[in-house]
Input
Amino acid sequence: MAEQPDSTENESKRIRFVPLENNPDVMSSLVHKLGLSSDLSWHDVYSLDDPSLLAFVPRPAHALLLVFPVSKAYDTARTEEDNNLPDYTGSGLDEEVLWFKQTIGNACGLVGLLHAVCNGMTRDLIAPSTPLSHLITEAIPLSPPGRAKLLETYPELASAHASAAAEGSTEAPSADEHVDLHFVAFVKSAENNLWELDGSRKGPLNRGKLPEGEDVLGERALELGPKRFLKREEGTAVGEIRFSILALGPSFG
Output
């Protein structure tokens, strides 16, 4: 994502990854390599309003990834909301969601994917004895700083990410390049709450209760999640709003 200013010394020491291409095949390949069942894959969402286009997305949708270039309106809204929130300190089995603070440069795509697959019912479709299952087990008892350090030092994660970054249909930028695309995950918890999970925020954000049986592409989920973002952008944007959405749902075939 477009990263926050940092001192030259800290920035020079920061771990950086090659950015992931916003591509459902690349995203699916990465989560499958890490241990998610091939029964689930990422799919493009071509419309949030047209029922005929939404019908192309396999349901139920368990998570969404909203991808967008960081705007002044987004930065302002994020700062204003975070100013009124404490830093998240949660850990342990009682957490409703597992949240990771992003400290790796250009890794917001990876962090978004982890938020999507490590929460809700999707976690139940992670194979045992895989990088994802081990990561979750190790992350649960840790504080947010401990989880961030875990991601920085997890070799299987870095290896799978590097492999996926090389699979895109366009030439990948270098790890040192600052990319302005940002990824935000929306997931439904076991308690039917819609959570916005963004590693650049102070913690996980509960956006509200969903009706029993509604997935993250349902009407209320879209209003509490992606459409809430888009309405804010529409009020300040000059020209076309650029964004894309991926949904995690049943694989084709």
